[in-house]
Amino acid sequence: MGDLEVRQLRYFVAVAEELHFGRAAERLGMAQPPLSRAIREIERQLGVQLLERTTRQVALTSAGETLLGDARTALEAVEAAGRRARNAGRSEPRLRLAFKADYDGGLLPRMLALFERDPSARPVELLMGGRGEQAPALREGRADVALLWLPPEEPGLDLEPLLTEARVVVLAANDPLAARTSLALADLAGRLLPDGTDAGGGGLLRLPPARPQRDLAQIFSLVEVGSLVWFLPVSLARRHARPGLAYREVTDLAPSTLAVAWPADSHSPAVAAFVRAALEVAADTQEPSVLAAGGGDGYS
What we know:
Elements: H1 6-18, H2 21-28, H3 32-46, E1 51-53, E2 58-60, H4 62-88, E3 95-99, H5 108-116, E4 124-128, H6 134-139, E5 145-149, E6 157-165, E7 167-172, E8 182-183, H7 216-224, E9 230-233, H8 234-239, E10 245-250, E11 256-263, H9 269-283
Parallel strand pairs: 3-4, 3-5, 8-10
Antiparallel strand pairs: 1-2, 5-11, 6-11, 7-9, 7-10
Helix pairs in contact: 1-2, 1-4, 5-9
């Protein structure tokens, strides 16, 4: 029994995801009959049935479900290897850093300055993305290192925590709750967060991938008119004080932790140098204080 080829895995994944041979063939840019023969050949090689076929539908067997998960992982690894090789083969290889604007705890400029002084440093290519996009960028080989908020919920990564800081709630300045100096999660029950969940549950540290990303300006505008509330780290709140917003401590809201992350199988001296720089900068950083207990809309 021979090993499966990358081409065969791509064929199977297309059929398993579409659960329709015609749509899968169209997606792959090929005719349906050779695709059907290719899937039968995979089943013959493995000695198991991967798909249940009827005149009305196609469904995965338990063996097919297992192969689908492993095939996705294998294809992702192949594509990631290609991206990393292309970057390494540049005339001037770069360190590709994935992050979300303003979600660096205020540390990134000092990290970059310190990293540049390391003998293993490379030119840095900054890859900005939405919340939750940094860990997939590492796993898919589009980035070499990333700054992200825990938990990354992604396999295959190594990480080091950098900074743990309180989160606060931002709400409209004319919201009745803004008259209070501090709140509890129960006070926010029924208010919506940007991901559509109830604020009384404590919120997510990143948006679910299936929901459209909103940028900071959109979120703050929706908060200002009373449509949303939002939990955010103190360092981010400090950067965005404005008259129409009120930031308040939430006594039982879990803090957030910024981490530096990289692929577990990375052996890059440049990645190691950036991690060292990030840890050194973080060690010299004091956690920003929580909002003062006064009734104003900003910080003291």
